[in-house]
C-alpha cells in the first residue's frame, strides 16, 4: 500500500509540475501580447520578432499617418504576400483603401476643374481595395462605411465644374462660328 501511495504522489507531483510550467508559459505569452497591445495603443512601432504581422502593419500604418501614402500602400501590399487569414487580408485591404483614398483626395484639380489622372486612378484603386475587403469579410462595417463615403466623395460628374466656354469670346472672335 505504501508503494502505491508513493507512486500516486509521484504522478500527482509530475502533473503539478507540468501544470506549473504550462501556467508560466501562458503567463509569459499573455505578458507579451499585453506589451504589443500597449505599444500599438501608444502609437509606437512594435518591437520584437514574435509578432511579425503586427510589426509590419504598424510600420505601414505609421507611413500612412505621416502622409507617405505610396510607401504605406507598398508596405501593406507586401503584407498580402505573406499568406494571411481572410480577416487579416480584409484588414490589410481596408488600410490600402484608406491610404489610396487619402492620396486621391489630396491631389489637386486640373486647371479646367477635372481631377488629375493620378487622383482618378487612386480613387478607383481605393474602391477596388474596399470591395475586396468586403468580399473577404462581408461584415466589415468600417470598410462598408468608407466605401460609401468614397462613393459620395468621388466626383463622377466632375466635368460639371468645367468652365462653360460656349458663347465666350476670345478677343473679338466669338467661339462656335460656322
UniProtKB/TrEMBL annotation:
Q: Which domain of life is it from?
A: Bacteria
Q: What is this protein called?
A: MxaK protein
